[in-house]
Amino acid sequence: MDYIEETGGAAPEIRAEREFMELCRAKLLRMRGEAEAMLDRGAAEGDAVVDKYFNHALREFRKKTVADLSGFDDAPLFFGRLDYAAGEVFDDRPETADPDGTGLAHTRTEDSDLLYVGRRGVRDADGEPVVIDWRASLSRAFYEASPLEPMGVRVRRRYGFDQAGLLSAFEDEPIEGAPVSPGASRLVTREIERPRQGPMRDIVATIQPEQMRLVRAPLDETVCIQGAPGTGKTAVGLHRLAYLLFAERERLRKEGGVAVIGPNSAFLAYIHNVLPALGEVEVVQLTIDDLTGPGLEVSRVDDARAARVKGGPAMAEVLRRHLWARIGEPDEEIEVRHQQRIWRVPVSEQAEELAAVLERGTTYGAGRELYAQRLANLVLRRMERASGTSTTLTQLSKNRGIGQALRRLWPVVDPGRLVFELLTDPVQLAGVAAGVLSAEDQRAIVVAPRPRSMRSMPWSTLDLALVDEVAGLLGRPVRLGHVVVDEAQDLSPMHLRAIARRLAGACTVLGDLAQATSPSAVRGWPEVLTRLNRPDGAIEVLDRGYRVPAEVLGFAARLLPHLAPDLTGPTSFRPGEDSLRVTGTGVRERTPAIVEACESALAGEGSVCVLSADADVPALHRELVAAALAHTVLGEEVPNPERLTLAPVSLAKGLEYDTVVVVEPARIVAAEPRGLQRLYVALTRAVSRLHVIHAEPLPEPLREAVPAAGVVVRSVS
Ligand SMILES: Nc1ncnc2c1ncn2[C@@H]1O[C@H](COP(=O)(O)OP(=O)(O)OP(=O)(O)O)[C@@H](O)[C@H]1O
């Protein structure tokens, strides 16, 4: 592969590419200017009254166009180029070398058609494309063309940029007629190894073929991606949404828009920039708790047994019974006073109507309305028979007498209160759980000591899923056109039901069974798909890791046979020599070793994280403060986080740091039933270096056999 880097003086070809980039920028600014002017002028809008909706849609479309073309004032406008034989892509060719400085000649030379690929499509004044959007079908070849399947491409060019975003290098990869394995691209490797700081960034310029295939899966296809740590599942899910919005924006909007569901707010903060950087600002990003229990705060973690029971599908039946047990039995006449007369509905007729409504199988809320109407109808018919009437069914169904009867027979319920009552009252629970939950299971889920009121209820994440289940029985929730569910290996059947209720179309499910730490989690992907009501979804595997160097991945993979024996160990894109260090210390030397590890990491570039069992975080915090190491404790919201983070391991899922210091693996394992899985998560967060520091013996699998090649095991005691 030819690689050219600007070394001062700028090589002529780099100069030419920079000039072309500036030309593209001028064209982009012109496109934006035109869209802004049309928006200001209200161009092509119809009559303000007659065409109100059309005008609104047109304005929204133009606002979106302006937003799409904004934010690129200094950013690189393309990151790649494909070289095809002349006439392969473009039909027409400019007659002169560069008519009116349009730059078209740059893309159509005598013997080549050059296709520039960027984050946005750019056109010239005649509508001719000069840069192709990465999501357009023409761009596919940039990601997928290979010597085995050249797709007409002769050479793929990738561009490198300096810190200021100035084009400073390119690399040409021959495709047609080239040897099958050209070796790793320097620019891709450089991009993957670039030190991380702050939130996740997009990967449009370097998406790999196995990832792109999933990004571009059709909208109607539910895809479930099992992938080892750092294989790019999250990145693929987010880029897939950007792609789907490009390809099917109108349909997705009509079907309710799109959302990303992640495990917690630290994770959302980490990914929140990726979609806006890709120009997608309309995607809702929320945690599973935001989805199921808006307004309720989680302050408790269920023990393993309670979690298994509450997360299990049997709870749906318990809640169904609990809700419908609110329906009363008619036992007194309804009196409706209307215009100085009293109309009565006998008990038997109320009961008949009630049975008829229950038979319909509506939601609780819709059933209530229907029952009110049917009671009103009984009265209305009596009135009509007697003397005719001027009142309507709707007016009558709001009559006080009918309202009182409804409150008795079909009361309004609050989902939170209903779940609160169920979980704090063993008698009520026993009444509706008989034959569904064993006595021990019932005991396991009763909250003790009993909270004094609903306001003092310590909700758990699974309680919120129960609240949502009840809400779903009351009425249908707002639906979404497409949902990306990340870290799905941890979701319980009840959580998956909550997502399924909202799915108008397909979804993208991301996760890694070896990282499943929740005792209530579904155990396999086929079951996840079934619970989502998408049993025909495709299960795909990603096994090439981009985050974790091979040495570290090999070390962590020693846990795999104990976690998910059916999963094959991942391979790593990067060897990462000298990336692993394991330090055994005496108890007193542990803190100095941690401090030294942090200081030495902070002396280099990038982010640093100390990961420990949750219970050890307060003590470590004090120790880092005493050592004057400025740091941010993950989970606390601060405007300007430090380069050093101290993180409880329970929040680390999905995150990554250049250097990770894992403290006392054995304590991480001992802290919870699926502690080994938690440790696997901790050991796979490092991009460049992992340093394990322990005074207690390492967990068995990590002690096994001889250390992997390159592992530095050092004892400081
Ligand atoms: N094609 C790529 N080009 C550049 N960077 C990539 C590519 N694929 C993945 N990465 C980077 O690798 C890292 C891991 O990606 P990501 O977080 O999406 O992995 P994951 O499979 O979701 O990991 P985990 O299982 O730990 O949550 C990220 O920094 C991401 O930007």
Automatic annotation (TrEMBL):
<dbReference type="GO" id="GO:0005829">
    <property type="term" value="C:cytosol"/>
</dbReference>
<dbReference type="GO" id="GO:0043138">
    <property type="term" value="F:3'-5' DNA helicase activity"/>
</dbReference>
<keyword id="KW-0378">Hydrolase</keyword>
<dbReference type="GO" id="GO:0016787">
    <property type="term" value="F:hydrolase activity"/>
</dbReference>
<feature type="domain" description="UvrD-like helicase ATP-binding">
    <location>
        <begin position="206"/>
        <end position="549"/>
    </location>
</feature>
<dbReference type="GO" id="GO:0000725">
    <property type="term" value="P:recombinational repair"/>
</dbReference>
<dbReference type="GO" id="GO:0003677">
    <property type="term" value="F:DNA binding"/>
</dbReference>
<dbReference type="GO" id="GO:0005524">
    <property type="term" value="F:ATP binding"/>
</dbReference>
<protein>
    <submittedName>
        <fullName>DNA helicase IV</fullName>
    </submittedName>
</protein>
<keyword id="KW-0347">Helicase</keyword>
<dbReference type="InterPro" id="IPR027417">
    <property type="entry name" value="P-loop_NTPase"/>
</dbReference>
<dbReference type="InterPro" id="IPR014016">
    <property type="entry name" value="UvrD-like_ATP-bd"/>
</dbReference>
<keyword id="KW-0067">ATP-binding</keyword>
<feature type="binding site">
    <location>
        <begin position="227"/>
        <end position="234"/>
    </location>
    <ligand>
        <name>ATP</name>
    </ligand>
</feature>
<dbReference type="InterPro" id="IPR000212">
    <property type="entry name" value="DNA_helicase_UvrD/REP"/>
</dbReference>
<keyword id="KW-0547">Nucleotide-binding</keyword>
